[in-house]
Amino acid sequence: TIWGGGFRHQTNRLSETHPSIAIRNRRFNHSLVNIFAQHQITPMPDRLAFTGGVKLEHNDFTGVEWQPSLRAKVKPSDSQTFWGAVSRSVRTPGGIEGADLLAIDAGSPFTGPDGNLYVPKIVGNPNANAEVLHAFETGYRFHPTPRWQLDAAVFHNDYRDLINVHGFTRFEPGNPGTAEMAFANLLDAYSQGGEIALTTAVSDELRLTASYSFLYVNVSGPPGLDTANLSRGSPRHQAALRSSFDFTTRATADAQFRFVDNLFNTRSYLTADLRLAYRPTEWIEFSLVGQNLFGSQHRERGSEPLLPSTSEVPRGFYGKLSWSF
User: I want to staple 106 with a disulfide (CB 3.0 to 4.6 A). Which of 14, 52, 120, 298 is the partner?
Assistant: First the structure.
């Protein structure tokens, strides 16, 4: 049995650094308390095991939250393992979403229903609830020889009370006035998919891993909210090929090729990473790394309401010295 707890307290001071963001509360404190316990039962040692646990948490945004989980593992033979898990987890609102801290410009002024001029602003919502996830997953591992291993897993996730902004919740008169768009629990969603990976040690010096993953997301919400684009906010297909080659016991080369499918406003891309490492002793390692080698730059995610423009990831090179003791 494993059990424990934790306490965290944050004191924050905010200051304005951009004219589009107005601060409503310059001081913000937040406390988090949690306790957890986990216990494993093995009716058949090395063949059958069950693990159950729960985490209780109290935060200043949504109060008490609970996160239980149950896992099972079955080994019908030394080369095969089946496993499954069911769990509940939450994401509590952050300071921007769940507290009246900021008012963020969200567009150009417009004429309101009363004929006056208003500036749209995104604001926090102290009444927002936690986002809830119910996760179901199962997998299989096949290890027929010391040089071959196959892993496969499938999952289904149900999301409730996802936070977003949509529509105006309050009009504050002024010259111009303010039209508030408060964060709220507007969306539900589900995702399902799977992943398969094959690993082989071609020789004592060379190891290869090939993997593929599929992800389908469906988001639902109130009329007028662009749930179709939100559903395409994660890549549907991803594939990777990784290799590791030991030139000597002290020199290694690691390479990775990656394909990532397109998003609703981001193109798919294929790229590669390379790492060369040398260990003159057991405690010191020098390495040279090249990232995103197939293009000068590419975008990996689309824009969001609070991030109207998204920078692109460039090709990069760096060196690293590690000392272990």
Answer: 120
**pLDDT, tens digit (0-9, with 9 covering 90-100), for 213-252:** 999 999 999 988 888 888 888 899 999 999 999 999 999 9
Asked whether 127 and 97 are in contact (CB, 8 A), the reply is no
Long-range own/partner contacts, residues 60-67 (CB < 8 A, 24 or more apart): 60/29, 60/30, 60/31, 60/32, 61/30, 61/92, 61/93, 61/98, 61/99, 61/126, 61/128, 61/130, 62/90, 62/92, 62/93, 62/98, 62/128, 62/129, 62/130, 65/90, 65/92, 65/130
Q: Residue with structure tokens 């609970």?
A: 66
- Given a contact cutoff of 8 angstroms between Cβ atoms, the answer to whether 242 and 254 are in contact is yes
| Burial call 84-102: b when 16+ CB within 10 Å, e when fewer | ebebbbbebbebebbbebb
Query: What is the model's pTM?
Result: 0.84
Q: What is the mean pLDDT of the chain?
A: 92
Residue 61: pLDDT over 70 = yes
Name, in order, each residue with C-beta under 8 angstroms of 43's C-beta and a sequence gap of 6 or more.
Answer: 50
